[in-house]
Amino acid sequence: MAFVWTKDLETGHTMIDNEHKQLIKAADELVEACGQGKGRQELGNAVEFLSNYTKTHFAHEEELMVKNKYPDYTSHRSWHQAYIKEIENVFGRLKKEGATIALVAEVNMKVSQLILHIKSLDLKLAQFMQNNVKK
Hints:
Distance between the termini: 38 Å
Oligomer: single chain
CATH architecture: Up-down Bundle
CATH superfamily: Hemerythrin-like
Number of helices: 4
CATH class: Mainly Alpha
Low-confidence stretches: none
C-alpha cells in the first residue's frame, strides 16, 4: 500500500502540512523499497527518520498548542509521548535484532497509525486554530 499525500491530510498550517508531507514521502519510499525487495535494507533509514521526525514534529505541534492554549493539549501530548516510546522501542529492536520482515511490517503499521493521528487529532487541532487563533 503506497502512502500518498491527500487533501484530507491538510491542516491548513503550512509548517505542519510540510512536515506531514515529509513523513508521507519517507513512508512511501519505504513501501517502494519493499516493492523492489529492498525493504530490509532501507528499514534502518526509515526508522531513524521516523524517530527524529516524530521528536521534532511533535515538539513543533506542542509549541503551537501551548502558544494558542489548546484545550486538548494534555491528551494530544500524551499520544505523542506514547508514540515516541513505541518508535524508540522499534529502533532498539532494529539495532538488536537487525532488519526483519516483521519489523518492516511493524514500521508500516506505525506509519499508518501516525496518518490516522493526522486525520483525527491533528485535524482537530487545526480546526481549533482556524476558529480561535487570530491571524
